[in-house]
Amino acid sequence: MSERPGPFRLALIAPVVAAFYYAGALVGFGMTFPPATTSVLWPPNAILTAALLMVRPRLWWICLAAALPVHIYLEIQAGFPARLVALLFVTNCSEALLAALAVRVLSDAPDKFDSFRRVAAFIAGAGLLAPILSSFADAAVVHQLRGENYWDVWRVRVFANVLTELSVAPALILGWQAAQSLIGRRLRMRAVLESFAFVVVVFAFAVVVFGRPGVRDAMPGTPPTPIVLLLPLFGWAAMRFGVGGVSVALLAASVVASYETASGLRPFATLPPIVSLIAVQMILAVVAMPMMLLAGLLGDRRQAAANLADRLRFEELLSSIAGSFLRLTDHAVALRTSLMRVSEFFDADYVALIQLGDGAGEIESENEWSGPGVMSLKGGAAWRRFPAAMAQVLNGETVVWTSADAIPNAATQDFLSYDEFGFRFLVILPFADGHTLRGALLLATTRDRVLSESDVAQLRLIADVIATA
Description:
By secondary structure, the chain is of the alpha+beta class. It is 66% helix and 8% strand.
């Protein structure tokens, strides 16, 4: 989110959005009850929402433009008149845009679902506000051009799109992020087996609940409303897989319920098919929202536990650094040991203490620790290789480059050196004794990394401890 996508990733946006929109539209047309125009399950809008939340606003036009030809082709093939096709695309896009804007306003990280606040922002903005508001315009279009009852269309579209926003968008976003994080990593067999078992069990229970009354009747103690059998699965999803798991469970239940209702099988057999399905969708949405919020609360709890563990590890690090200078008589060995521990704590490939020399403004790296294959910055190389960064350091400014795109355009030499060293993250933190600049702590990685305010504060404390040792 915070980084500018590279040319390859930028080129992927349009075809990926178009492919997913096409697949979602096919599902949506398959879940339409003729002669009604509105589908009881329409994933394309949620797919657009997911795409808009994963890219910067200046790239939103690419996502919308990629969906347009797919939308026109499929709806013309379905026999819709050109005017209706155009207006329905506008209402589809309005829902996705409203959802993306609302979530961005309410959440500090629109594509994250790891806290109560972020989950609540998504549910409020994308799950409720956008489908409800956009359905007024959509129902008006269908009413005027197709003559269908306004409130019937509005009701079907609201429940269908609330369900797809809650199920499809988080599943796509978190699935995409998980796929990227797994590149080059070994999969844990236990986690894979649990995920596979979860998906199989969810689909099996959904089929029993929504489509196999004979099986339900044969089960002793089955409640009159068998949808409650899905509650333990939603709890399993929230506790073990987070919001992504709840979304997958909700999506599986929604697809099975819609398909079985279209086939004539439904849990509320005394109601007409559409009314029965809306009742099911309402129950699923009402169950899913608190389960998602529960997953967000569990995310807050895990984050608090991780922060506490990190704080204890950091205190241990400071203690070990201070102890190194007390135990070891060789100052250089103590310093190198301390830098190695800093690199382990921050998962860095290169750490250096840049000291201020006696010359006028000369800076050189006298003490460093580097991983295998990482180039050295000793002997004044830091100043020669990164002149723009060193100029900022001399002015007392902290340099934080989380990608090559963060380097100023005028810093040509810094950009070349950053690329030559293979850095993906670089921070240079100056430290001073009173008003006198004494030096800086340099930390770099060859992998992507995000620097938080607490990281900066920790690095500042480490620099002070090392500088005064």
